[in-house]
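Need the bound structure for S-adenosylmethionine, inputs here:
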Amino acid sequence: MLAQPSPEGVSAAVARPVAAYPARVPLLRAAVAQVGASLLVLALILTIPGVFDGNTSTMAVALAQGLVAASLARALGMEPWWLPIHALFVPGLVWMLGLGLSPLYPLSAFCLLASIYWGTSRTRVPLFLSSQTAARAVADLLPRRRCFTFVDLGCGFGGMLDWLARDRPAGRYCGIELAPLPFVFAWLRIALRGGACRVSWGNFLELDLGHYDVVYAYLSPAAMPGLWDKASREMRPGSLLISNSFLIPGVSPTRTIVLGVQDDAKLLLWRM
Ligand SMILES: C[S@@+](CC[C@H](N)C(=O)[O-])C[C@H]1O[C@@H](n2cnc3c(N)ncnc32)[C@H](O)[C@@H]1O
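Answer from helper R.:
Posting the output first, comments after.
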């Protein structure tokens, strides 16, 4: 079980405001590629007579823009999976407009996806949610009566916090989330339920993990080496790091709990 937290540690963790993340625009390079390609194609049409004549279809121009956008994205160092998105973005819009659909549909879809996957191109941690089996297994690791502090790094829609706060009400819970839409959802969910639980908008890299008895992370393989560096610097002796599914390269867990819902679903525990 967990080491006894000091009363000062508990109140500091609950009272301390989490630094708001200075949100940079993660899609800036994508926007530069798209706008740059549109301007280049436009300049081509205006300056070189006959490149695109009156018979050239809008779709042909859109495909040319897509090719230039993909090339620009590559030149800007974007990862290969971005290239088909760049190549097909404007042709897709032209196709939709040809069907008579309002441009508000693709714009809304774009805004929705951007607000869910806000930092994914940078953090390489997409949104997927812990199962109830995982939440139950985490609850089994927490004290029933004794006070403790818990943080969910990248809390998504706040499901894990909500479940634990109901099942283990002695705890003080904190979640931090980078993506705007999941953050708003989690914040509302937690605000409506009340209790010793709060959610902040921000980057967990700016959070001091030394305030928590239990740190829970369901991230991705790409995030684990950085998380371990941070956890081993900041977490207190006796505190517990739990990773849902993802190993830390070269660091054996103190314990592994197989969840049994999927082949690779497990909790990996490191006692600090
Ligand atoms: C796989 S989901 C897990 C959601 C939730 N913890 C759960 O278990 O259901 C990972 C979440 O972490 C968020 N995230 C990734 N990197 C982050 C960072 N540096 N700071 C805050 N949140 C981050 C993502 O936006 C995503 O919502």
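Comments: Residues 1-26 have pLDDT under 50 and may be disordered. The two ends are 13 Å apart (CA to CA).
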